[in-house]
Amino acid sequence: MKEGLSKSVVFRLIAVTLLSLLIVLQARLWIFNGGFSQVSRLRTQVELQSHENEQLAGRNERLEAEVEDLQRGFGAVEERARSDLGLIGQDETFYVFSEQQGGGEAVKTAK
Predict the structure, then answer these.
(1) By Cβ atoms counted within 10 A, which residue in 3, 67, 75, 76 is the most buried?
(2) Per residue in 78-104, pLDDT tens?
(3) For residue 69, what pLDDT is reported?
(4) CA atoms of 32 and 40, how far apart (whole Å)
(5) How many angstroms separate the CA atoms of 55 and 72, rounded?
(6) Residue 109 pairs with which residues in a beta bridge?
(7) What is d(CA 13, CA 41) in angstroms, rounded to the nearest whole number?
(8) Which residues 6+ apart lie within 8 Å of 93 measured at CB?
(9) What pTM value is reported for the model?
(10) pLDDT digits (tens, 9 = 90+) for 12-26
């Protein structure tokens, strides 16, 4: 009878140990770092980074096209100088209109 009783105690001890181990592993998987919560956070970060990368790739393509235009022709350089620096060419008249009342005079430059 003692033999049957000790087997039962050993079996219960093993069962409790395995159950405890299972609970610890499940808690680690669901709650602590390195589990599902961290995987979810990393997926969100990957999505955000992918979106940012797409935006930057589009910007890079536009910049590459602009560089190619500037390298290929003088027209792009002239357009850039006109829009960014306000430069005017020979035999051109540059007018600046203001929206002030009473003084709608235009400024004439470079002829």
Answers:
(1) 76
(2) 777 777 776 777 777 767 777 776 555
(3) 80
(4) 13
(5) 26
(6) 94
(7) 38
(8) 108, 109, 110, 111
(9) 0.45
(10) 999 999 999 999 888
